[in-house]
Amino acid sequence: MQRRGALFGMPGGSGGRKMAAGDIGELLVPHMPTIRVPRSGDRVYKNECAFSYDSPNSEGGLYVCMNTFLAFGREHVERHFRKTGQSVYMHLKRHVREKVRGASGGALPKRRNSKIFLDLDTDDDLNSDDYEYEDEAKLVIFPDHYEIALPNIEELPALVTIACDAVLSSKSPYRKQDPDTWENELPVSKYANNLTQLDNGVRIPPSGWKCARCDLRENLWLNLTDGSVLCGKWFFDSSGGNGHALEHYRDMGYPLAVKLGTITPDGADVYSFQEEEPVLDPHLAKHLAHFGIDMLHMHGTENGLQDNDIKPRVSEWEVIQESGTKLKPMYGPGYTGLKNLGNSCYLSSVMQAIFSIPEFQRAYVGNLPRIFDYSPLDPTQDFNTQMTKLGHGLLSGQYSKPPVKSELIEQVMKEEHKPQQNGISPRMFKAFVSKSHPEFSSNRQQDAQEFFLHLVNLVERNRIGSENPSDVFRFLVEERIQCCQTRKVRYTERVDYLMQLPVAMEAATNKDELIAYELTRREAEANRRPLPELVRAKIPFSACLQAFSEPDNVDDFWSSALQAKSAGVKTSRFASFPEYLVVQIKKFTFGLDWVPKKFDVSIDMPDLLDINHLRARGLQPGEEELPDISPPIVIPDDSKASDIDESSVMQLAEMGFPLEACRKAVYFTGNMGAEVAFNWIIVHMEEPDFAEPLTMPGYGGAASAGASVFGATGLDNQPPEEIVAIITSMGFQRNQAIQALRATNNNLERALDWIFSHPEFEEDSDFVIEMENNANANIISEAKPEGPRVKDGSGTYELFAFISHMGTSTMSGHYICHIKKEGRWVIYNDHKVCASERPPKDLGYMYFYHRIPS
Fold first, then answer.
1. Is 817 a known ligand-binding residue?
2. What is a GO molecular function of this protein (predicted)?
3. Is the alpha carbon torsion for 773, 775, 780, 783 positive or negative?
4. Model confidence over 460-486: pLDDT tens digits?
């Protein structure tokens, strides 16, 4: 056993005194009640600190709490000890040394302590034949920092030995995120290799499905033998149905079916009626293609190297990644990359752009001590803690250090390699922000725009006090709808966070070249010759801006002046301009063959943008407003699903929302058009069942859904009384408890943290009592509610970042980010950060502008 000096490299630390077995047991006795053996379901973190990106590879190693199994770097372990009183930690350290050379010059294989870290991730940057690993584990007892080397079976109590072995052999808490692991849990169907498929001419459309026997539109299964679309049973996949798919199997004996709505380029839910379990179908792409479903024909990877459609798009990959140019690596604060987890480039690109914004830097990294000190007992499950951790990792420069020439001499002298961490891994951050989200928690590629909105929603819900950095994106949109028959108008306002620009393909300036290229391409394909060099449509930005400002037809418009459906047009203008304007180019759509299509276009995006002419003007002289009358409420028939406007569904799906969520949005808004359904999505997108198949509600469900669409709020806004009672029993004032619960969405643990983190909070007793009385009396306050917070100003902007996408659809390919820093453009391509030589501003997908002060 050694004193603190050995652990922290203090002089004289290596000569610690060896204690007898009885001394070790006596030392551990007071701490035995706090040492736990990991149970099934416990997350054991031994690869990454909860507050930083320290790991066993770091100079100070990693400390794993033997009670909570959370891990902490040297800088943060004292905080956890002071906060919790937990004294016993396992210290993990990985040493990397140059291999000993044999007589012939080759490296001798050597790996000591190979049984310690059976599941510890290795650093790919150090996976070399020239180096070997030596893993070390110790028990450390705080506050005196006594050390007990492991393994130590003879001297340690049995419980401690079992706990240490369990920690060291535990699996990664992120194993479910790792690509392809879930597939190994499903068996391959014995019917997949020789499945009979009838040549009956059946072709399945991309939407509008219904059961062939009962007209149900949810929980539908496509039989892979004859193409029948039939409903499942209630007990399977937690969705309703009448069991017609199973009846069909009993009648015909066709064994395999795939669930519609789950098909992606990575696979689908396949069920074997004969084997009575979910299965894998290795030939699913071929079996689906038999019925005209071409989705699985694309086998895209994160870096796009296996995309079947890559040949005609090779120039896109080269141009966006600036291939062929010698890019100079960048190091230091603000130049830290993010390692690719196999499906995380969409997240990395968005977060690099987010943390280049000063408001986000101040809100999180600027408040780091307070956020970390007041973090909950499990900081891995706290949004603000993980945002601060990520921001500090990207901005501190601690994980982006240039190689030093003297390092080679140091390696020779000390015979030890000190690794330079090349980027940080966002594994813990991704695990938290994607939790309970059906898409982001999967291993599939995602839409960066959809993740941006998801992140903004999380920032809104977890804002720190009154500070909300996402305010910089928020703006008001004025929508003017005009009845074409009566010419009367209605003005409404809604909140938005990005500007979606349509691609004006008809305005291409090189139409002749495009026609000639298409003819040459088809001829080359027919004759199996090499394809010609890609010709990309050149679209003026002004044409896209013009298309945005032009009136749109409103589908199924209900005119309150006519009390009936009529033709209507809608125009959108900015009622306020945000401090930071995010512009999305709507490059993606769906083809009739189910394949998401991408407009591969070049748009001359300006460095300086002026949209002041799009400022809303409100009701104009001579305009007459439509009567303020709501359309009649149509209660759906429970016995049969009402028809769903599939055109509205597809409009929403083109924005990147899950198909089932789009169908629910259109259904619950009574087929009143994509715009109203979009508002429903924004309100409900964080609900756990957001992307679950549509289940028809009863009368009460329809009424409540309709209320939420039009912004109605519940009358009872009071936190649960039993939680209020728990907090007040701890000695806190009732109004404090109510305020804290409201600020934390009625989460008890977070509410207590909120109270401790707001010691300066002055309780407004009159306000709280009034709100209580109103809630208890079921009264809605007559005071006008405060409007959304916006930072209005000039509509003149300058480009400072853009995110580009390579590949054929948002479901495959790769994202990278370019950011302008210190007067020059920098390319962020996963963990690689380099000075940009030719930033491809014309090929971006999302553009970030900041307002120019007037």
1. no
2. zinc ion binding
3. positive
4. 889 877 779 999 999 999 999 999 999
- The verdict on whether residue 231 carries a ligand-binding annotation is yes
244 appears as a binding residue in the annotation: yes
- H or E, element range at 7: helix 4-7
The DSSP letter of residue 280 is: B
What pLDDT is recorded for position 767?
39
Kindly write down the DSSP assignment for every residue of 240-259, as one continuous string: ----HHHHHHHHH---EEEE
Q: What is the pLDDT of residues 194-230, one digit of tens each?
A: 999 999 999 888 777 888 888 787 788 999 999 999 9
The rounded distance, in Å, linking the Cα atoms of 710 and 704 is 10
For the chain, give the longest Cα–Cα distance: 96
Q: For 33, how many CA atoms within 13 A lie in the half-sphere containing its CB? A: 2
| Catalytic residue ranges | 345, 814
Question: Highest mean pLDDT: which of 258-262, 312-316, 526-530?
Answer: 258-262
Where residue 248 falls among pLDDT bands split at 50, 70, 90? very high
Residue whose token pair is 């909140």: 495
Residue pair 710/719 in contact by the 8 Å Cβ criterion? no
What is the C-alpha to C-alpha distance for residues 754 and 761, in angstroms, rounded to an integer?
Answer: 10
**Is the pLDDT at 105 greater than 60, yes or no?**
no
- Residue position matching structure tokens 């016993």: 88
Question: Is residue 388 within 8 Å of residue 368, measured between CB atoms?
Answer: yes
Rounded Cα–Cα distance for residues 806 and 307 (Å): 11
Asked if residue 611 lies in contact with residue 574, where contact means CB atoms within 8 angstroms, the answer is yes
- Name the burial class of residue 430, with classes exposed (0-12), middle (13-18) and buried (19+) by CB atoms within 10 angstroms of its CB: buried
544 annotated as belonging to a binding site for a ligand: no
Nearest one of 50, 74, 79 to 63, comparing CA atoms: 74
Helix (H) or strand (E) holding 668: helix 659-668
Contacts with 594 (C-beta within 8 Å, 6 or more apart), sequence order: 206, 263, 293, 294, 295
pLDDT top residue among 214 and 390: 390
Residue type, 288: L
Query: If residue 522 lies in a helix (H) or strand (E), which one and from where to where?
Result: helix 511-526
Strand residues in 56-157 grouped as ranges (E) = 62-65, 71-72, 88-98, 131-141, 146-149
Whether residue 253 is predicted with pLDDT greater than 80 in this model: the reply is yes
Q: What tens digit of pLDDT does each residue of 120-157 get?
A: 555 444 445 566 778 899 999 999 899 998 888 778 88
The residue whose two tokens read 């939790």 is 435
Domains of the chain listed by start with CATH number: 20-98+128-167 (3.30.40.10), 185-296 (3.30.40.10), 318-401+416-470+794-849 (3.90.70.10), 478-494+501-576 (no CATH), 623-693 (1.10.8.10)
366 Cβ neighbours under 8 A, 6+ residues apart: none
Nearest CA among 564, 606, 599, 602 for reference residue 581: 606
Whether the pLDDT of residue 419 is over 50: the answer is no
| CA-based nearest residue to 109, from 132, 89, 88, 75 | 132
Report the C-alpha gap between 708 and 677 in whole angstroms. 11
DSSP 8-state code for residue 120: P
* CA dihedral of residues 514, 518, 519, 520 (deg, nearest 10): 100
C-alpha 41: how far from chain center: 23
**In 3D, which of 206, 279, 253 has the Cα closest to residue 659?**
206
CA distance 270 to 296: 14
